[in-house]
Amino acid sequence: MGHSCLRSLKLKLQLEVLELGVLKYGSNELFQKLISSCPVLYSLTIYRDYADGLTVCDITSSSLRFLQITDGFLCDDTDQLKICAPALEHLLFKHHGICEISMEGLHSLMTVELDLNCVDCDDIDLCDLLVDQVIQAVNRAMVMKFYHSTMETLNGSLAELSVPFDRLTELYIEYDFCDWGRLEDLLHWFMKLRVLHIEKFEDISRCHWTDPTRVPDCLKLNLQHVSFIGFEGSNRVEYELIRYILEHGSVLERIQLRGDPSESEKRLLMHQKISMFRKASQSCQIEIS
């Protein structure tokens, strides 16, 4: 849709699905006019970069249920992203860089996927503020996925957040070599967590795991299913994590460990080793594939 079409847009469009590639909008007002001209919009996908001409990306819609935003490297902290979508159920937010973020009224959220990357930002306080703004805005979600870049962006301020996550029951995380203490903070946050999926993004041999001083409530009360994709059984960290979960997972029903399916002998050795760990839940099943 070109500039001339946007400028002359006066009719209400009956679009339910809209996908916007990287465009040059010319002004913030033209973008707002496009969104407001779609009163029954159900799904919106936006790809952005620094040259799209927007300093304020305002997504206000009472009908929107699915939203995907993929930002390029927006490093100007004067840029703004505003989302007001009370009916929104699914949010996929890929944001690389720094900008001011405002998300309001997201009370209907069911699933959220976050790919936040500002680890190269020189202003650590500004990076912390961005993470805090996003996390507080999506705390009503029931299912969340943190991409590996998000796990890197999260830092020591995790433990200081007081945002209640009283609906979240399922969490997906991608992990690489970052400090596994962040996983501990997440478990303390998500007290009602029932399902935890861990996917190893790359080698974690440089990681370390230290047993928390206080057992997270979700382990004692709610966590039932844990899956670990990329489990190799080749370093101590993987076993230490599984040992801790087994020792304190009082209502745990199943742990699934997925690695190389061709190494049957290695799988047998892993199963033998893990079977020796003490289990708080005697009914917990261990599956290695």
From TrEMBL:
<feature type="domain" description="FBD">
    <location>
        <begin position="217"/>
        <end position="289"/>
    </location>
</feature>
<dbReference type="Pfam" id="PF08387">
    <property type="entry name" value="FBD"/>
</dbReference>
<dbReference type="InterPro" id="IPR006566">
    <property type="entry name" value="FBD"/>
</dbReference>
<protein>
    <submittedName>
        <fullName>OLC1v1013761C1</fullName>
    </submittedName>
</protein>
<dbReference type="InterPro" id="IPR050232">
    <property type="entry name" value="FBL13/AtMIF1-like"/>
</dbReference>
